[in-house]
Amino acid sequence: MSDSQVEGAASTSGLGSRKRRWTELLAGRVKRQMYSPGTEQKLQESAVHLLRRHLNLNDLLLEVEGAPRKTLCLNQLIDPEACTNLSSSLIGSALRDQASRLGVPVAVLSSRMVASSITQICVSDGEPSHRVLLSAEQRKKLSSLLEVARYLLAHSMFSRFSLCQQLWEVQGSLLLEVVWQLHIQNVVSFQELLESHADTQATVAWLFRNLCLLCEEMEASLYSDIASAMLSDLVQMFVLRGFQKNSDLRRNVEPEQMGQLAFVVLQRMLIFALEALAAGMQDGSPQHKVVKCWFGVFCGHTYDRMISTDSPKRFFSHTLTQVLTHKPVLRVSDAVQMQKEWSFAKTHPLLTGLYRRLFTMLSPEELVGHLQEVLETHEVNWQHVLSCVSTLVICLPEAQQLVKDWVARLLARAFENCDLDSMVTAFLVVRQAALEGPSVFPSYADWFQASFGSSRGSHCCSKKTLVFLFKFLSDLVPFEAPRYMQAHILHPPLVPSKYRSLLTDYVTLAKTRLADLKVSLENMGLYEDLSSARDVTEPHSQAHQDVEKAIAVFEHTGRIPSAVMEASIFRRPYYTAHFLPALLTPRVLPKTPDPRAALIESLRRADKIPLSLYSAYCQACSTAEEKKPESAAPGTKVEAVCAEGPLGPLAAALRELRAAMTDPTQYDVVAARVAVVSERLDAALGRAEEDGSSGGSQIQLSVLTPGLEQQEREVADLLLTCFCQNLIVASGFASPDRQGPWASRLATAMCGRRLFPVVLTRLCQLLRHQGPSLSASHVLGLAALVVHLAQSRSVLPEVPVGLPAPAEGLSVAEFFSSLLTFRTSETSLFCLKFCTAVISYSLCKYSSLSRDTLCGCLSPALVKKFQFIILRLFPEARDPLCPEDTADPPWRPLCRPSADWQQAALCLWKQRTFRELLKEKEFHLTYRDWLRLELEIQPEVDCLSDTERWDFQQWALHEYFLPKPSAAGGCDGDLQVACAVLVDVLIDFRQSSRSYNYSENSDLVLSGCPGNRDIFSRLQEMAAGLEQGPAAPRSCSPPQGHFLFGVFRRRLQALASGWDVAARLQRQRELLVYKWILLGLPPSVVVGRPQAGRPAAPDCTEFFHLVNSELGLLNACSQSGDPSLTADLVLTACQTECPLVLTSALLWWPRLEPELRSRWKRCLQGPLPQELQRLWEAQRFGRSCLLPDTASPAPGPAWLSAAALYFEIQRAGKDRVKSQLERLGCQGEEARYEILSLVFSGKLASDPCSDRLRFSWFT
């Protein structure tokens, strides 16, 4: 102000007061003060304080400077725009001059100047109350200002404390980014600014408000990178100071201000996020943005610069504890009732995401231990605890066993001390983990039975423990879901007989509760799974599932399932009210009865269907036949139907899974997405997907006619199509070994007890019945899926494929291999593609793993089929490989649109890893394997011509397998061994010609075994080669008979013995094949190989043994009611219809009689029949005629005695013929005539058909 202005102001200040000048006022004030040392210093400090607290700097400068001059003014320095045009040194000089004029320290003046400029910058774009980030223009001005501040600070012309005080005075206008810029530009650090404020609560409130605004602006801001850096720096500082190693916030001591402030801010942000989640915020709301962003700070990369400290780990542990203990208002009874809603898929994704991020800093062992400690020492929020358990077992597979061990320890402690808390925790944890499906944890029913269903359970220790268990189970009854009570009733704990009343009391209570809930055990399905995730299965819904299961069992066994028979007697209400109506659903009956119709007919014949109900069913089917619409043939194209309704959410979940695949390292994210897919499958299938293990029961599958309901097929197609598309997308940017766990996780999700049969049936339809029509992407995708399913074989059931398959069924890998056939050229080419894709994917996916792991992922049968087809189709593959013929696995070339499958197959054949794999014994393509596969070929539709097929078979037999060592699957150069193996395989093939590989109309004739004609021709050629080979030397041991009879004998000995119908039928089928083979080979097969030297009598020992023991009269008689009568009738008929049979018997009687008497006595325990006795008498007559004494009387008929005598004469030699003929005088005329006719004709002695006579006798 001017002196005149001050004078005017003073004249009006009071009545009667005179006007005094400004200098007089000041002089009077000075006179009243006593001068003392330090007064000047105090006055200066007071002046500075006055300037800082009450004075407007601009007005002061105008007052002091007077009229504007050309020199630099301080108000110019305050203007941010002016600062950008001035050098730092000039500004520093001006500040020094102005401070000298004012008599204040230059550091104070410059700090005030900077604070004022910052305030102007923050308010230049409007009210900053809802912003934390600067605009581009503001950021530019601030950068210039901070450059000046750094210059002043470097020249000791700047006060950090003064700046902090000034900034807190204008905190309402202060933007968070300004504070961050001050920190990173090393003007004022975060810690210094925060600690300068005396009001800690106000500081926390300001930080909390700005952090929320920062999180809210994060996604929408154009400067998200700056916002992210700000948040990261702030969180790192808070974690580092709030969770220092020596700080203990629980002690009753005063912690340092910064540590306390950081701890409180982090705590307040977490509580805000948890309360927002509990309140049910909407997606896209401001609260949702804040929570999502704040939970994102728990990503590991935020703490990369703090890796050398333990602060992040302590922070994560503390956060997990706070989450688990936040607002513990839920009681145990609430948890028992509501935990089904807290599964992984039903928990808010932000909360499960927080869990997954917290898990990254702790090992699985530490996590389980921490969870156990929190439960033992705190009151907990059961919703958060159980959702954490679900996330733990889903995202950390190694934690699954840890949880099982923890539960076992809890049970042991509970029964040891009757500790109710441990018991409650164990049951809640098990039920929660079981909700996540069979790939994660055993079903609750399986766990309960394993824990309490045997004498090894902890509950069997004493009466006290039994009382404790049943008291606990009884207390659960009012709150738990029906499926748990059903599991307890149907799989009850093992209880000693003297304490049986404890169990019966509980069962009565549980049944009463089920009745109150209108859930009846009598209405439970025949095959109902007690581990279903849904509380109550409607009887009519379960009945349809029971019908499908019963039909599958009936189709497999040919008998009414025992479960159906039992239900018709013991569970009549469910059987009549639900099962039969579901079975007798009206439909258009097929012309040829299908399994459903056959089951209905079997039940009707067994009087298990009421006549009135069956009549109504027949009438309704007739009506349906009249109204039958003209239907189109179903398509065969694999197409996912993403319709609205249940498939919509499933398709959305699958799309989210595909998005998560972009980062293969995020295992927990993929696991979370797969868990959501599993949850959506429940609604898509129209039934609850159980948490039971898929390995608990066998799958019933008709390979010839696999069928699915429309909804099941749509779900399966959607899953398979998604898998194939995901694989192609993933293979576009990474090789299989770098694609992460998405494929194995999704394949595991398909292994549920109810979903897996659906997927398996659809794969059967595609691979076996539609394989040649599949596109390349489908072939690649399904091949990869087969690899991952085979990897999960330990938790999957075996697959019975129909008689006469092995009783134990096939593993999943073997089943998929069995679906690949070579019967036609199209199926052979598809098999080549599929095998190439499977092996290539396995080699790429598991290239870094051990050889055992790689072998475990590949089916030996599939590898053998690949070897078979590539050797068959490509002659160049039959040439020896050079050492340098190596190549990379051809997976990437197969993923290209213009893939050359044949070239890829040859590339794989030459691949080094694959060649090393073939050295493993289990992957050897043996001679027996090759014969089995070659027998499948149908020559009419073979991709090879007749000449090419003959060339291939000749090469395989004589150049590849015959000289190959037996250890490698060959024949060691032994042609007889090759023939024997061929015969053995041929018999097996014909015996299995009614298996699922062929139609039900196949029979045991040659045309019923496609492809075996060429192989049988090769057998004939090799048998002829054996006959034309060099004769055995004279010094050799006696011949052992033809190899063929050795094969027959070995196989007959291996057959089941017994006289039951099944054993006799099996034996007859085997013998029919033997006769078919014998009739197709040269007659010389039945005799042994001749020795060198003079001709000898043919050795028919082996042949006779086969005929006598298996094909002869004795075998036929033993199966009749009166064996002796049967033998007499047959032999009597032979006298008139076929006398050569009896003549043949007399010829070989010396060898036949001993075995015949022995076997008849041993098997039938009686004397020989009359007609066999007649043969013995004829032979005795012939022999007596050659004796010097009297001859025995000749039995009738005369020609039989004559034949016997003739054979004896032949054995006696020519020298005695005359004397023998003279002895005929004692015989009748007819006998002499017959004998003379035989002697002179000599027909029997030279008839080459004598062997056939012998054969006819036994047929």
What does the model show?
The chain is an all-alpha fold and 1259 residues long. It is elongated, with a radius of gyration of 48 Å. The N terminus and C terminus are likely disordered.
Q: Based on CA inertia axes, which overall geometry fits?
A: elongated
The unreliable regions are 1-17, 64-75, 247-254, 628-644, 688-697, 803-807, 993-1010, 1031-1039, 1090-1097, 1243-1259
Number of helices: 62
Distance N terminus to C terminus?
144 Å
Task: Kindly provide the radius of gyration, computed on alpha-carbon positions and rounded to a whole number of angstroms.
Answer: 48 Å
Query: How would you characterize the largest beta sheet?
Result: none
Beta-strand percentage? under 5%
Q: Which helices and strands appear, and what pairs or packs with what?
A:
Blueprint (H helix, E strand, L loop, with lengths): L2 H9 L10 H11 L6 H16 L2 H9 L8 H5 L1 H5 L3 H15 L3 H18 L12 H19 L5 H10 L6 H9 L5 H6 L4 H18 L6 H19 L14 H23 L6 H11 L14 H14 L7 H7 L10 H11 L4 H14 L4 H14 L2 H20 L2 H15 L9 H9 L10 H14 L5 H9 L9 H17 L22 H19 L4 H9 L1 H12 L11 H11 L5 H16 L20 H14 L6 H19 L24 H24 L8 H8 L5 H15 L6 H16 L20 H7 L6 H21 L5 H7 L2 H14 L17 H4 L6 H10 L1 H6 L9 H9 L10 H16 L13 H17 L20 H16 L15 H12 L6 H20 L20 H11 L1 H5 L5 H15 L1 H9 L1 H16 L5 H16 L12 H15 L4 H6 L6 H13 L1 H4 L3 H9 L1
Helix pairs in contact: 7-9, 8-9, 8-10, 13-15, 13-16, 14-15, 15-16, 16-19, 19-21, 20-22, 21-23, 22-23, 25-27, 26-27, 28-30, 29-30, 33-34, 33-35, 34-36, 35-38, 36-38, 38-40, 39-42, 40-42, 40-44, 46-48, 48-49, 48-50, 48-51, 54-55, 55-58, 55-62, 57-58, 58-60
Organism: Panthera pardus
Protein name: Fanconi anemia group A protein isoform X1
GO cellular component, one term: Fanconi anaemia nuclear complex
